[in-house]
Every structure is written in structure tokens, then in C-alpha cells.
Design a protein that fits this description.
Length: 186
């Protein structure tokens, strides 16, 4: 059999007691000499291989034997560092005022918020998910009412979905809406 140099790469996500990287460091590889890592490893009797034990469908199971001499690199990454940050968007409008006072009304017109998620179901370019929110202003619509109506429009459009994809909330300052926050659901 012929093996290429980079034929197989394994990623193991482990949870267990701290074991020093020094415990399974192959001779001459200095990249493993880092601080303690959260590995739950066991060594074979001859000390040349390590393996992981975990609860599988049939009870306690072990991973493949990993020859210590083949370990090139080990790195500790916490769950917080690997966490996917949820996407958030805040919507705000520029209000107008005819008397020079604080901006209190929204310009006349129709305002549309379009949410597009690409590769939603099938992971193909054709698979797109569209949701809309719409508010029409006659020029006398207050900013607070605009945000409330846009939130209600978005929630009504999103309510028809089987699975909730977004949270829509008002951003408030002293109990007065100053924006809309759309957050991806985990």
C-alpha cells in the first residue's frame, strides 16, 4: 500500500481530565510541549499508542489506536473560542423634522426590509430564503410607530415558518423605540 504524506487528518474533540501534552509527546516534536490540554487519553501497554474512550451506542467504545510517533500537533481550544457567533442586524431610519426640533417623523414613502439567507436548505446557489417587512408612511408617522409597525410586519411574515430563524426585538432608549434588532436564532 502507498500512503501520501497528508492522506489522513483526524480531529478529536475531547472532554475529560487535564493531561499534559508531555505525556504523549513524540521525541523531537516540540509543538506538543504546550500547557496542559483537556485530553482524555489512554496509552497502550507498550506506550507507543494512545486512544480515546467514550460512551457509544453499544456502551464504552474506544477510538482507533493513534501511534504517538505520528502525532504532529495538538492544540487546546475552549468551547467558547469555537462558538459560532450569532448574526445580528440593527435597523434604524433617519427621521426628518420641518421645524428644526428633534427628528420625530419618518419621510413619506414605503420602507421594505428584505432578509435573504443564501444556501438555506440545499446548500446550492439556488437555495435562497426571503422574508420581508413593510411599512408605508404618509409623512406623519412617528419614528416610534414606524419601528413598532416594522417589527409587527416582520413577525407576521416570519410567523408562518415551522422553525423560528430570527428574533425580532425593538431597541429602546427610555422606553422609546430607537431601532429594530434582528438576531439569528441558535
Amino acid at each position: 500500500m502507498t500512503y501520501s504524506e497528508n492522506q489522513v487528518r483526524h480531529l478529536y474533540v475531547l472532554d475529560g481530565t487535564d493531561v499534559s501534552a508531555q505525556d504523549f509527546k513524540p521525541v523531537g516534536v516540540s509543538t506538543l510541549a504546550a500547557a496542559p490540554m483537556n485530553f482524555a487519553l489512554s496509552k497502550t501497554k507498550d506506550g507507543e499508542c494512545v486512544y480515546l474512550q467514550y460512551n457509544g451506542a453499544g456502551g464504552v467504545t474506544r477510538s482507533d489506536l493513534i501511534p504517538i510517533k505520528n502525532i504532529l500537533y495538538a492544540h487546546k481550544t475552549t468551547a467558547a473560542e469555537m462558538a459560532k457567533k450569532l448574526k445580528t442586524a440593527t435597523i434604524a431610519v433617519t427621521a426628518t423634522s420641518t421645524d428644526g426640533d428633534e427628528n420625530t417623523t419618518v419621510d413619506k414613502g414605503t420602507y421594505i426590509v428584505r432578509i435573504v439567507i443564501y444556501n438555506y436548505v440545499g446548500m446550492a446557489d439556488e437555495d435562497k430564503y426571503f422574508k420581508y417587512g413593510q411599512v408605508t408612511s404618509n409623512g406623519n408617522l412617528s419614528v416610534a410607530d414606524f419601528y413598532t409597525k416594522m417589527k409587527d410586519s416582520l413577525l407576521k411574515n416570519l410567523s408562518k415558518e415551522v422553525g423560528k430563524l430570527f428574533n425580532v426585538d425593538l431597541v429602546e432608549n427610555n422606553n422609546v423605540p430607537v431601532g429594530i434588532k434582528i438576531t439569528e436564532v441558535e
